[in-house]
Design brief:
2 domains, transmembrane transporter activity, transmembrane, transmembrane helix, membrane, Growth Hormone, Chain: A
């Protein structure tokens, strides 16, 4: 090894030798390549009068420790595999909650109202997002290993404790609180680690990771359906817990391989940007996500219950309708991403919100199993964009990429409240007719109207963005 090479390593620091260590050293997440460019250009401009170009370059590299991501290789694709396994547990279990909503209503917790039962699933989803936002600074400070271990422990522990539950508050603590906290701790690190290793192939890598949502939901629903009548609720949940444990154990070496230097403390990302509250595009974006999240998850929670109570379907058939929705969402995430590439994220997001809202209102007229199966599949396909495209759309309206992570975290924190209250409100709107039949008109109207209002807000966001940014129609 030459003396020049040794000297260069001393200047850049040991961590610069490993490509993966770069992005996290400044508190990066997968969206912050633009932040890096902004900081580098700013540093170069500020020091131009004092330093020559060679010194500027050396100091810039030494300060940022940011060589380009490798965009491939064993360690990089292991991060994708590990993130995929994590998403099977954290989001797959959340979107499969309709299975538990139906079982709790008819069997385990028949004395509880649908609204009360839906609070369990919405609290789990709310904690996933809120704790996920708050875990970003912990990742920046080098605690990703602790979050990975403790988050997976809480998920598996929560599932195992759920197998012992017999009362509402026991289920609420195990499934809503314990699993929600664990999922939130894993949400950001699993995405950030993948983003650190990929740049040009980042969209594809993150797409593979997020496909774990549908895969996990399908696996857990099928397991529940096949085991609940043979093994009973306790051992069915324990079997699901063992699968979650295997996924967790396999994710450890995959996500930790080649990432030892990420444990070093780094610059913490800010949690609040006061200038955002004066930005009309930020406020409009947050309003759009809030309205969409109020209605988005309602059908996922009530598909099995509607099939059993309204259509007379068996519990097994009703669960496979939910599987159809999750399978549709798998292809919807891919399709909406491709459409957004040609028409822009905001425009595609608005189109999917509009069609989802119309479809939710069409739910009112469904009276046969065949038509409801078609509705479930189309719902999953069209509504998938409502959680996939917002992050991409936000990059189009953020005036300063160095604040992208902070502002997106602020917006998602507000939108998470809609995730928390949307389904309980829909459950409270369920009515019982004089003949004892459940009337689902309230949740159907709630979901459809919220999504239509959200699509209207997106039209306003698109128009204001086009005028403010002075761009074409493809936004």
């Amino acid at each position: 090894m030459s003396a020049a090479t040794v000297e260069e390593k001393k200047q850049l620091g040991d961590s610069s030798i490993q490509p993966h260590s770069n992005a996290s050293s400044e508190g990066w997440h997968d969206e912050e390549k633009g932040q890096y460019d902004t900081r580098q250009n700013s540093a170069a401009r500020n020091s131009h009068d004092e330093q020559d170009p060679e010194t500027i370059e050396t100091r810039s590299l030494a300060g940022s420790q940011m060589p380009p991501p490798p965009d491939g290789g064993l360690h990089a694709w292991l991060k994708v595999f590990g993130g995929f396994l994590v998403y099977i547990n954290i989001w797959g279990f959340t979107l499969a909650y309709g299975t538990f909503q139906s079982y709790y209503s008819f069997t385990l917790l028949p004395d509880q109202s649908p609204s009360s039962i839906s609070w369990i699933g919405t609290v789990q989803g709310w904690l996933l997002i809120v704790v996920g936002v708050l875990s970003g600074p912990l990742f920046d400070l080098g605690y990703f290993r602790s979050m990975l271990y403790f988050g997976n422990f809480l998920i598996v522990f929560g599932i195992m404790m759920l197998s012992l539950c017999k009362t509402y508050w026991q289920v609420f603590l195990a499934q809503g609180i314990c699993m929600g906290l664990g999922a939130g701790l894993l949400y950001i690190p699993s995405l950030a680690l993948v983003g650190i290793w990929f740049e040009k192939k980042r969209a594809m890598a993150l797409g593979i990771v997020m496909s774990g949502i549908a895969v996990g939901g399908v696996i857990y629903i099928i397991m529940f359906d096949q085991l609940i009548h043979k093994a009973g609720f306790p051992w069915t949940i324990r079997a699901i817990g063992f699968v979650a444990l295997v996924c967790a154990l396999l994710s450890f070496p995959a996500l930790l391989s080649g990432s030892s230097t990420l444990a070093r403390p780094r610059k913490r990302r800010a949690l609040f940007d006061s200038s955002a509250v004066k930005d009309k595009l930020f406020l409009l974006f947050t309003l759009c996500t809030f309205c969409n999240f109020l209605g988005y998850i309602v059908p996922y929670f009530y598909i099995p219950t509607f099939a059993q109570e309204k259509l007379g379907s068996s519990s097994s058939v009703s669960l496979y309708m939910l599987i159809g929705a999750l399978a549709g969402s798998f292809f919807g995430r891919i399709g909406s991403g491709m459409l957004a590439h040609y028409f822009g994220s905001i425009l595609t997001w608005g189109l999917c919100a509009l069609t989802s809202g119309i479809l939710a209102l069409c739910w009112i007229s469904i009276e046969t199993q065949a038509s409801f199966i078609a509705f479930s599949v189309f719902w999953g396909f069209l509504s998938a964009a409502l959680v996939t495209l917002p992050s991409a759309a936000f990059a189009s309206i953020c005036p300063d990429m160095s604040r992208l992570g902070t502002r997106l975290g602020m917006s998602w924190s507000v939108a998470s409240i809609a995730t928390l209250i949307g389904s309980p409100i829909a459950g409270a709107l369920l009515k019982t007719k004089a003949n004892g039949e459940t009337d689902f008109l309230g949740p159907q109207l709630w979901s459809g109207i919220c999504l239509l209002v959200g699509s209207g807000c997106l039209v306003v966001l698109w128009a204001v963005t086009r005028k403010t940014m002075n761009t074409g129609w493809r936004i």
